[in-house]
Amino acid sequence: MIKRIKKYRKALIAVLLVLGVGYYFCLPKTLFDDPYATVVNDRNGALLSARIANDGQWRFPELDSLPQKYVTGLLSFEDKRFYYHPGVDPLAFGRAIKQNVQAGRIVSGGSTLSMQVIRLHRKGKDRSVFEKLIEMVLATRLELRYSKEEILRLYASHAPFGGNTVGLNAAAWRYFERNPAQLSWAEAALLAVLPNQPSMLYPGKSVDPLKSKRDRLLQKLFEEGEMDETDLELALSEPLPRKPQDLPQLASHYTNFLISSGQDGKQVQSGLDIHTQRDVVNILNAHHQLLKTEGIHNASAIVLDVQKNEVLAYAGNVLGAGAEHQEFVDVIQASRSTGSLLKPILYASLLDEGQILPKTLIPDVPMFFGDFAPQNFSRTYDGAVHADMAIARSLNIPAVEMLKMYGYPKFHQKLRDMGMSTLNRPAGHYGLSLILGGSEGTLWDLTNMYAGMSRTLSHFNRERYKEGDFNFARLQSSKVARDSAPDASGRGNDVSKNGNDIPNHLSAASIWFAFEAMLEVYRPNEDAAWKLYSSASKIAWKTGTSFGYRDGWAIGITPEYVVGVWVGNADGEGRPGLTGIKAAAPIMFDIFDRLPETTWFNMPRAELVTAAVDRESGYLASPYSSQIDTVFIPKVGLRTAASPFHSLVHLDALQKFQVNAGCVPLAEMVTKSWFELPPKLAYYYKMKNPTYTEPPPFMPGCETQLTQLKAMEMIYPEPNASFYLPVEQDGRLGKIVFEATHQNRTTKVHWHLDGEYLGYTQSEHVMSLQPNNGNHRLVLVDDLGTELVRSFEVLKKGD
Question: Which of 74, 574, 709, 714 could staple 549 via S-S, CB 3.0–4.6 A?
Fold first, then answer.
């Protein structure tokens, strides 16, 4: 015998080696490759929304831990020696054989939980003796690879619970609408027995047999000392759920956003708060009931937690809008015309580079840039307006003037650096219209950009500039993602600690003044509720309305939160009266009203300096300034110029005329400091500022050629302008209104077109003309012989 063994030893070793290798590799590395549902929990673990797996099953991603009540009930019902056997329980297997022989049919399989995991892995296999042997072998291999706790989690995550519900997590939510950790004894016992016959017994079907099975397990647990008599009595009295419940869809658009961002089939603990999310959804629905009566069918809102850099609430659309109004569109991620939302960023950019001071006077007069002629919403002009008030009142013409000053190519790059992802064309494509909604942006980008500004200002007083202030909000809660997690868009850039060499950076000082200007946003006089709200909480806010009344925007900023709202129609249809101030701002303030109380920013004094500023012009005070305020300005503002609108004016003794040394002796002159705007600005400025007075006219004989040239200015057209004649309602060609201004209101201005005398104007220098197609030369001459020449071209339709 020994000789035979020695003879076949090598063959036996080879066979054992093959069997050993086969045994080692008999179990694939991944047991389950089934698709999972996408599950979104709030920051505290509450279920917000879920998207069913691609195979139509409610199969949640595998659990990280199991509730003890469920484990206790499961082991008592299925495998009480689970922690002691190697994957196969000989006692249970023997007992099953005895029961099957006595019954004359298969009534028990004797399978351990490890064998059931293998059966779930080998789905669809016949329950034959041969298959049972395979399961036993694979179960022992399973035990060598995984710990007992891991095997329990595999079973609980992939066991069937009736219908298309797979896994404990999905079953707990569908049957009891709660997290598995919150299951009662009765609920845990029911879920422990359900996978035993999921196609025959489940809630809503064969209720009595299922309840009897659950109650038997509860009685057994009581006898084993796992619960006391009171627990048993309460558990037995709990009714069974009637049928699986629909899973909540409180953040369906956010779930789609996660899926598009690579989170498909994952369970995400987001930064959303279920209570805030529900409040935002309810507020949108309430406003939608009123808005839809005006033909406005869609609205969206987002709330960002600034300090945690998380999304607190995300409602991409009004779910009650209906499919015909595209309720499925996530407008938070949709590109829409930005309206005026970029104006505060431009204002901050100019302050940041020391090009203006907070109250620098900006021209507000008619402007023409080829075929681009910006208009204020009110269709009126102030002549000149302080920069901060231009932001507060959202004036278009001063905004275009500021962009021209800053440079639209540089501003285009600034916005891209801050995270605006929709600027996918060269700066020249947008031009100066960039600041008036000539570009498109998303509510996601814009709210995150303002949140970055808020974080920068908040962090400055604690640690100057902090890396990552302009990172976009994370998809996962900071409890899970930590600070190292990538942002949702993958676009956020870190800000350097010195805050000066990263292109997306805005200084804390510039942001402070921008937010202070946004505190003064114009509110409708007829609505007293605005004043009541503004006294309750400090919120920097900005509204926007796109051309054609297609989009209404509102964004509000505090140190804690940024709230962004969009209102309109997803298909782009404009509606009269659809403005940010009327449609979007009320929603934004309602949302803030539901948020915890907010604070306000501390002044970044380390970046500020006190300076003497001319009150009238907003520039640094000049030697001729008559009203000077000592105020805080950004340190870089010291490089700006002194007021150009103040000069010394020499008057005669009666102060009725301007004079000079060539016509009046010095001893008879009165010298005064005077605030004087150029004629074009002064023409409109004095309409809105009754206290503004122009210097007296020059005494006859005291005029100089320079003073005569400065006295008259053309308002329209601009030099070398090209335009079409307007078409009236009856189809006939209309006239173009030409306009000029003169410093002396009593002076007559004589008009000549191509050498032909047209007449004169006095006081108001306006004339309507209908020139032929082609090039023309307009000459204006005042009483003193001063000429003003303007060349222009009338285009032919089709040119």
Answer: 574
Closest CA to 584 of 575, 483, 424: 575
Alpha carbons 567 and 543: distance in angstroms, whole number = 11
Backbone angles phi, psi at 751, to 5 degrees: -105, 135
Report pLDDT digits (tens) over 494-522.
333 333 444 457 999 999 999 999 997 65
- Beta strands, E only, 171-319: 267-269, 298-305, 310-315
296: pLDDT strictly greater than 90: yes
Distance CA 781, CA 98 (A): 121
DSSP letter at 486 equals P
Do the Cβ atoms of 775 and 789 come closer than 8 Å?
no
Exposure pattern of 216-241 as b/e (b: 16+ CB <10 Å)?
A: ebbeebbeeebbeeebbeebbebebb
DSSP-derived 3-state class of residue 557: strand
Structure tokens at 140: 């022992």
- Residue 262: DSSP 8-state: I
Closest to 556 in 3D by CA, of 537, 576, 535: 537
Integer Cα distance of 248 and 244 in angstroms: 12
Instruction: State how far the Cα of 383 lies from the Cα of 293, in Å rounded to an integer.
Output: 39
Other C-beta atoms within 10 Å of 306: how many?
A: 24
Q: Averaged over 384-412, what is the pLDDT?
A: 94
DSSP assignment of 405-444, as one string?
HH-HHHHHHHHHHHT-TT--S-HHHHGGGGGGT-SEE-HH
β-strand 336-337 against 310-315: which pairing, if any? Answer: unpaired
d(CA 483, CA 468) in angstroms, rounded, equals 9
For the record, the structure tokens of 496 come out as 């350097």
Number of Cβ within 10 Å of residue 86's Cβ equals: 13
Distance CA 669, CA 684 (A): 30
Beta strands (DSSP E) in 624-773 are 628-634, 646-651, 670-675, 712-716, 721-724, 736-742, 748-753, 756-762, 765-769
Contact (Cβ atoms closer than 8 angstroms) between residue 440 and residue 342: no
Q: Give the pLDDT score at 536.
A: 63
Kind of pairing between the strands at 336-337 and 440-441:
antiparallel
**Token representation of residue 467:** 């890396």
Q: Which residues, including other chains, have CB under 8 Å from residue 706's CB and lie 6 or more apart?
A: none
Q: What DSSP letter does each residue of 573-641 carry, written as one string?
A: ---TT--IIIIIHHHHHHHHHHSPP---PPP-GGGEEEEEEETTT-SBPPTT-SSEEEEEEEGGGGGSP
| HSE toward the beta carbon, residue 199, CA cutoff 13 A | 0
DSSP 8-state secondary structure symbol assigned to residue 727: B
Nearest one of 338, 340, 286 to 315, comparing CA atoms: 286
User: Where do we find the tokens 């029961």?
Assistant: 99
Where does the pLDDT of residue 427 fall: very low under 50, low under 70, confident under 90, or very high at 90 and above? Answer: very high
Kind of pairing between the strands at 670-675 and 748-753: unpaired
